[in-house]
Amino acid sequence: MKVFNFMGWRLVAVVFSAALLVVSIGSLAVRQLEWGLDFTGGTLVEVHYGDSADLDAIRSTLDNSGYEGATVVSFGTDRDVLIRLPSGFTDSDGNAVLTVLEEASDTAVELRRTEFIGPQVGEELREQGGLAMLLALGLVMLYIGFRFQLKFAVGAVAALVHDVLITLGFFSVLGLEFDLTVLAALLAVIGYSLNDTIVVADRIRENFRKLRRADPVEVINQSLSETLGRTLVTSLTTLLVLASLAFFGGEMIHGFAVALIVGVFIGTYSSIYVSATTLLLLGVSKEDLMIPVKEGAELDDPAP
Amino acid sequence: MLNKYPLWKYLLVLGVVCLGLLYAAPNLYTPDPALQLTGESSAQVIDEATLRRATAALEEAGIDHFGEEIDANGRNALIRLRDRDAQLRAQARVARALGDGFIIALNLAPTTPDWLLAVGAQPMKLGLDLSGGVHFKLEVDVQAAVERRMEYYYSAIRRVLREERIRGRVTVEGDRRVALAFRSEADREAARALVVDKHPELLLDRVDEADSWRLNADMTDITVDEIIDYAVSQNLTTLRNRVNELGVSEPLVQRQGRNRIVVELPGIQDTAEAKRILGKVANLEFRLVAAPDAPAVEKQRFEYRSEERSGAYEWLERDIIITGERVSGAQASFDQNGQPNVQISLDSEGGTLMNRATRNNVKRRMGVLFIERKYRTRYEEQADGTEVPVKVPYDERKLLTAPVIQQALGAQFQITGLDSPMEASELALMLRAGALAAPITFVEERTVGPSLGAENIRLGVKSVQVGLALVVVFMVLYYRIFGLCAVVALSANLVLLLAFMSLIGATLTLPGIAGIVLTVGMAVDANVLIFARIREELREGRAPQMAIHTGFERAVSTILDANITTLIVAVILYAVGTGPIKGFAVTLSIGILTSMFTAIMGTRSLVNLIYGGRRLRHLAIGKDIVQGDVA
Fold first, then answer.
1. Distance CA B112, CA B117 (A)
2. Fewer CB within 10 Å: C terminus or N terminus of chain A?
């Protein structure tokens, strides 16, 4: 089979990743994230009009009824309207808004959903989300350090941090709303990217033991080439279902699908370049992988 | 022989898949929209006549209904409707026809056939985002409960010092400390002994200053946690009782974290109504039982609240001794003789008032009244001739108990002579319900209308179908026969996932559906890994049977590592996440577990069935194998 010289391009990859990271971190620092209601607190009302809704009329109705600063946008179709009240309104305002809209409209107004999130809850969620992310990274590092070797753990975590930051950056640059489902997607990205990284790492370990003479760059190139087919196929099937989710899943799940699509792309790339490059930087060698006795026994396996 | 499973392995795979089909099957039956009728009090029995009145009202309004049933003990009745849109209208009609005293709740009645129910198969529960309903998150103001306890310590310590004639100054410092200061060391030691005896849970610390001997009594973290637990669990019990009153078919009242309570009410649309009942405050009044010769203007008649004594009543004085705000705690326990009793503590002012009222009335009886705000429905006719229901509030006062006063009472006293420990704990609960140990506030509220719920299901199912179809087409085109095996395994995986979730009673949410879709995409990964290995082995010149064998063998450890790490992430998601994230984590974790079974064992048995034990020249595992085929 053809062995691609992946690592020959690693400088280009480093520059590319660095550029993406700088843009992401810069945007996160300057523009921050468009936090969704789950995190900011506030009130949200989604209504469905019998006829296409006049957003300006709704805005002025709300302004006149004491709901200044409400954002009114259409949600999916021109009949569905999403109204967001800034924090400061109480939990009873969701119903009140519906009543106001019903009185002002000629056509039927149907309540689709209301959400009220107190400010303290939102703040906690942000903390919890960050904590979950750190915990996931920490435990994963432990597991890989235990199953493989510390250098692999560092490589995997570098790839994960890379993926999470760039996905976050994507949401920040485009100003997409970051809500709870997107956070869930981000953690799923960690899971996915990890899956990829481990498959590659597994092969690198195997090849280090098999190709005793080869230098690390050759071993890694060989391993990446061998796993390339599998990496691409799995990414493709995952992207297929995510595309289906993004197109047919409806508005409430759209952010989730988009975050995962971005994450799968980045995760596929990072499992090839980020974790492997990190391994080379850390100076991985076959001595690193000869220690565990049980794993060594596999070598003597009289495989046919 | 190579690539032949023993018979039992085939049977195992087949058996698991069949069981999966059986337990996933109930989800195929769409539930009927229904009305659930319940009596407001447990004495209210639903009989045939009531049901006939309800169905007559529906017929009059031209609403189709069928399959009416009353459950065995006559507490609930169910009326199934043909049309989901008519549900709200039907509810209003039936409420109007039956009048007060009944709770009419919207419900989705499962249509699971009896033979499935017989083996314990149940459809999955739908989350609020799919079924429609209200989700509340309430926060218990635990600070208030802690402050209340501080007040209690403060007054209790002052009183005991006064009783023992120890001179000293008592102040509250911060929110955790009662500070005592004495003129002499002897006073301090005497006081210390008293406090240790009465309140062993306080942490005592002597501090010597120039001219005063001080003693700091601190509440420990353990005590504070106990107070918080007590306040939250009390609110939990109270909320459960009130939610039952709402007559929701499957409510959820659950503690979350340190001081939050989550309430989920499927099928409820009117959040205002739900909040009114949840936020309702019960109260208590303590009054003396009137003397037999008291003039009528000075006394009032009250009925007992409990059902065993329904109809019995007492005459109480009009003067109120104290109300429920003065009660700081009530606990069921036992006296020295093992008889059940209820220990009541009042705050300092309550203690003074109670003492004043009881010291001259020993051997008389004292009644405890339970006051609840209730609502009557009145129908008002509008100008346009339509009727709107109007809720008129009123206070219902019923007698809990009327024990004899044995001696002058203070801030701490007990009610004895109760029949059973059950009665004692019920009474304690009632007394606490009025006490409002800690106020609650709504910190989160989500309502999903029924139409959005139905749409979410439709969209979710569609994206699973389309996603699955795309993956099937791709896998079969790319891996041919092997792809077909993987696709069959993937479908089995979906079935097992649904069966598992139905069995453990997991709730399906929209993010949960997203988790299923993601599982479909990622579950083929295990097969892709195996197939890629087999291709490699073929390329290296191994015979087809050997390639299958080593391909599966070698891929397994990679699959395990990859899946275990993903599982770690899913478990963290579950542990840290709330609501929607939890739903996603559950489907993701179960999906990982079932996919390992179907992708490794399921696919292997299919491949074995097709290729096992045959002399093979090549494998249908995609086009590039032809080149590497060493036939």
1. 7
2. C
